[in-house]
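assembly run, all chains below
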Amino acid sequence: MLEIRDLVCAYGQVAALKGISLQVGAGQLVALVGANGAGKSTTLRAISGLVKPRSGSILFEGRDVTGADPRRMLGLGIAHCPEGRRVFPHMSVAENLAMGAYLRHDAAGVRQDYARVYADFPRLAERRAQAAGTLSGGEQQMLAIGRALMSRPKLVLFDEPSLGLAPNIVEQVLSIIRAIRDGGATVLLVEQNAYAALELCDHAYLLEAGRIVMSGPGAELIADPHVRAAYLGGEVETAHRIRA
Amino acid sequence: MTRHLPLSHLPLALLVVLALLPLGLSDPYLLNALIQTGIFTIGAMSLNLLLGYTGQLSLGHIAFFGIGAYASALTALGFDVELLFGWRVVHEPWPPLAGFVLAVLIAGATGYLVGRLSFRVRGAYFVIVTISFAEVVRLVALNWVELTQGPLALTGIPAMRLGLPGLGEMIFRTKVQNYYLVLAVAALSYLVVARFTRSRFGRAMRGLKENEALALSVGVNATRTLTIAATASAAMAGAAGSLYAHYFRIVDPDVFLFSTTVTMVIMVVSGGKGTLIGPVVGGLIFGLLPVALRPVLAPEAQWIVYGAVLILILFLMPRGIVPKLEALAARRPRAAAAQKPVEAESRP
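ok done. output:
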């Protein structure tokens, strides 16, 4: 579904991605793990069109979409759930969701999707008139996910969805992401919480300093001595676990 | 929402009070001050559309106001100018209402052009572009004597006339008539801003201000959104300018004074930028403050008090009067209805 070939991205003189290649198959949940500054977020930003690649190519459903702008990528069915400030704080929950459907013009379909998001996230339904900035961190992340789903994406890019959330909320968020995959969408997940991501995914890529150094099924990476030493703290048992 | 009753009814309450005011008020000086305040409050509302909802500061906003004033006056007066290569343009006088419509359209069109040219460079650059633009327009008004009479001013501008079907023609000659005209346009402007900012497009504007990266990622076209906001804002300022021209019946290049832009910025910021009623509250305070101070203080002291009031407001209420009142109104009921999660206003 998504194929990246030799992608190079740079901020000024600093190369963030030094030629990475990866593939995401339709219906898969693919994880991109690695340390801070390895280039994970840059990869997602390049895919959604927020960063223009220096070279290399991005193919989505067989079409070359390298360097397309965010509106085009969204129109093709790619939704980006960025890290950090995830919501529009002064807008209500309902308005935040409406922003997710910004490019859509099928009012009936949008109404259906509101209902679906509210059914999936009852907390959001309760608070639909409340300013998003007053929600808890977990609720804001749910809202960000709901907003991404409002564009009816084929591919959802999640950037650090667990960042700054309480452990029990992290579990909840990750199981929602799995549910999205199970619902038929394709997911590309960027996570620092390597163990959780590796356990959740169908396939994983390990990114180090702008290069992909390893790839394979999640279990394979979990078993790898290098991954265990560098990313799982050597002690998988105490690392955060996610229910299967 | 019912618990926000006092504040959510503020616009309507203000409208009723302002509509009844001339009944008990016959002092022409006060009426004049109210009309002038109303005209500049419409200007402040238009500025708020840009400054409050997109975060872009236009320090040349008076240019659109002045363009509206000149466009309306020239449409109503007619003109006869010679352009390059002896090309002559003659315009016969049209009714003032046509002037109003043209003022809105022409000011809107210039707003569009300025937006198109300057929103590639945002923030400080936009501020500089708008200041320069206002200065250029002022110099044109001052020096293109054949069209604008330059410093001699356009005089004898006819009063606004409105043809009412079945009722004949209404001419806005007296102060009371003009007062209601300004009030009606102000109320309409308020509704337009309310409607505009709650639309899909308004969400895009606010989204850009609140979290630009996120707004772009959901597909908002930043340049286009800001340009449309600038167009709407300029058009509304043009409407205020037209009211100015047909009320004072005289327009000179001093309508482009930089200090008037500053006054409008003060009205918006003190009242609460990004709120609907904020510019109205700020406009009434800073429009009428000089009137209130005039009988008690010398002119120099008036400006000192004016400045002190501004500093005091911004010191005590950095986000403006209306957001502060909203915060106070939201706090009280939350304590009362403690266990149930309160549905707050969308703007805390």
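Chain B touches chain A at residues 1, 200, 203-204, 206-207, 210-211, 213-221, 274, 341, 343-348 (CB under 8 Å).

Strands of chain B lie at 79-82, 88-91, 154-155, 161-164, 168-171, 250-251.

not gonna interpret more than that til we talk
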